Amino acid sequence: MRNIKSLLLFMVILASAGMAQNETWNYTGMMHFPPEDTAFVRPFLMTIDSAGVVYVASSKATTTKAHNAIYYLLPGDTIFKKMIDFDNNGDSDTLTGNIGAIRGIAALNGDLYINASIPYQRTAPNTVAAQYVYPNRDTNLVQKFGFNINGAGYGTYIHGAAITKDSIIFTGVSFNTTIRFYNFSYALTTPARGSWISMATFPPVPGGPHFNGLDVVRDVAVLRTGDYNNPETPWYTSRNSKSSTEITGGIAMWSGGSQTNPSAYSGTKITDLARDLDFSSAIPYGIDVDANGVLWVAGTDSTRRWVKGYNVIVNFADPLYELPAQFSGSNPNPEGAPMTGPSDVVLTKDTKRAFVADGGSRAVYRFDFYDPTGVEDETTINPFNFSLDQNYPNPFNPSTLIKFSLPEAGNVKLFVTDMMGQQVAGIYDGYKSSGSHSIAFNGSGLTSGVYFYTLETMSGRITKKMMLMK
């Protein structure tokens, strides 16, 4: 039985490798910070808004030499602009300020959200937190929440931040080594805006109780358009380890709850064949999920020095992409970015561009996606390319939506096969016009497992993988 499972797993990996073999990422440039700030900028976590504006938090979370500051990069620019430096405006003062170390950053539309630990010297022996909101990136409109400021649920350190389309912030907290959600929606009146959503129980983060706050959640990632009222929509946390030998860290996938019922969530540790996701003690191991559901991970420690994109199926992560990096511990590329400590990664909403914050070189690197199978002239003539999107949601139970595009009208066949290549379901067989199409598939008659869906037309054949999880 073990040999059969190993063979099936190998087939999954082989199939994924075939899907991505004609798709590559190219390193396309270094983004710089203002020259006068280079002495104290330490790129930490990142976020990106719907307009493609990239935000980077410099943080004292890794070194006291850093300033707690926020920088932003407008589309087309190569030099970041400084939005705010909390060291210069007095908010990082250990006796009066609220920003001890920035620990999370998220953007929704044009609004920016950060969370931070409040300086320990002010509140010892307690470890407490704050969150700031900047509507439309305007520092004059800042809204402050936190311990003894406004709102509830800040009597612990908050780590990482990701915001759903409904304005609920997902974080990890040191208290009970668990998760915590905060309501920043005007539509949800209970709890009050800026307060935590009460939890009957505290779902533990895989890896066990933290050790002196050293091995906790460092970053959080959600599908930006995901329905987090649906318990099947996954989200992710990254956690570092107690040490390089006692591995408590890694990636966890969460499901089973909702944004208003976090107690029902359960976290499952994600594994991969290379054990690349068994993280060491470095921080922050930033993560992002792109619009196709690919999980992107920044391997920040000295043995990794890479950024990889994974297809996650239940509790297994299959590597699809690696951004080209000169000093990668797994696949060094002399034409790649000179990253020495990639701390976080973000993808644009079209998934065609990636930005990586690098704490080692104190810079941000840009990468662009390239598919050599695409023909530019044909794209100009035809508004639609021949394409098959990743099904959504994935994993699914029992229904999922499959989208595809046709450059010209013709006969279309869409069907499902199992791991052995046997057809188990026919989704569509008939004529379709040119353009984009969506077809729902109901897998109620199938058992849980990995399946492949294939689109066949006169333009060619495309196969992708999906997971039915009942």
Give the overall form.
globular
Strand order of the largest sheet: 1-23-22-21
CATH class of the largest domain: Mainly Beta
Alpha-carbon Rg, integer = 22 Å
Strand content: 35-45%
| Continuous helix count | 3
CATH architecture of the largest domain: 6 Propeller
Largest sheet descriptor: 4 strands, antiparallel
CATH topology of the largest domain: Neuraminidase
Q: How many angstroms does the end-to-end distance come to? A: 22 Å
**Weakly predicted, low-confidence segments:** 1-22, 374-382
Q: Quick one: CATH superfamily of the largest domain?
A: TolB, C-terminal domain
- The computed structural class is mainly beta
Report the strand count: 30
Number of domains: 2
Average pLDDT, all residues: 90
Write the layout of secondary structure elements.
Blueprint lengths: L1 H19 L3 E8 L11 E6 L5 E5 L10 E5 L7 E5 L15 E8 L2 E7 L2 H4 L5 E6 L8 E4 L11 E6 L4 E6 L4 E6 L33 E6 L12 E5 L10 E6 L10 E4 L17 E3 L5 E5 L6 E8 L2 E7 L19 E6 L5 E6 L4 E8 L5 H6 L5 E2 L10 E8 L3 E8 L5 E10 L2 E8 L6 E9 L2 E9 L2
Antiparallel strand pairs: 1-23, 2-3, 3-4, 4-5, 6-7, 7-8, 8-9, 10-11, 11-12, 13-14, 14-15, 15-16, 17-18, 18-19, 19-20, 21-22, 22-23, 24-25, 25-28, 26-27, 26-29, 29-30
